[in-house]
Design brief:
By secondary structure, this protein is of the alpha+beta class. It has a single domain (about 5-130), classed as Beta Barrel (Elongation Factor Tu (Ef-tu), domain 3). It has 5 helices and 9 strands; from the N terminus they run ββαββββαβαααββ. The chain has helices at about 25-30, 70-80, 95-105, 120-130, 140-145, and strands at about 5-10, 20, 35-40, 40-50, 55-60, 65-70, 85-90, 150, 155-160. Strands 1-2-6-5-4-7 form a 6-stranded antiparallel barrel. The chain is elongated, with a radius of gyration of 24 Å.
Length: about 160
């Protein structure tokens, strides 16, 4: 999927959360449904840069607008404050690591009354993939052990 590049002003939103508004619909741009973050929240998992500083997060949707939360650490690293314009380069991901981060970020936003029924449940999807194409099992512990030296009844040594 393609990266998206845009410039957006850092604004202070509801509950003091700092965000940039995303100027496109990620579902249309990337032909991808949002990922379920919790029973009443969903978003599009992303990785990218803000003013050249790498970050992981998600695109949320509330009040008919798409947004990305810009946390304090990212604001400080990118040297921006409310009112500044950021250059954003983002791309979608299905990383479980990004899902964990997005879930933590989403807790500072107001949840809608009801989540989308068509949101992707990434944990269930990964579980299903594991059952369909299980990982190659590691070599058995026995195969990794060095040979054991033994002595037979006659006192001769050998390997097992």
């Amino acid at each position: 999927m393609s990266k998206a590049r845009f410039e957006a002003e850092l604004i202070q939103g509801h509950k003091g959360v700092t965000v940039v508004m995303v100027p496109f619909d990620p579902e249309q741009k990337w032909s991808q449904k949002p990922v379920r973050l919790d029973p009443r929240r969903e978003g599009w998992l992303i990785r990218g840069t803000a003013n050249g500083v790498r970050f992981d997060g998600y695109i949320g949707y509330r009040w008919n607008r798409f947004f990305i939360i810009i946390e304090r650490d990212l604001r400080e690293a990118a040297k921006v404050s409310v009112g500044d314009v950021l250059t954003m380069v983002i791309e979608p991901t299905m990383s479980m690591r990004v899902l964990v981060r997005a879930r933590a970020q989403s807790k500072v936003t107001t949840a809608p009354k009801k989540g989308r029924a068509d949101a992707i449940d990434l944990e269930k999807s990964n579980s299903l993939l594991t059952r369909i194409a299980p990982a190659v099992p590691p070599a058995s512990a026995k195969a990794l052990r060095p040979p054991v030296r033994t002595r037979d009844r006659s006192g001769r040594s050998g390997s097992k």
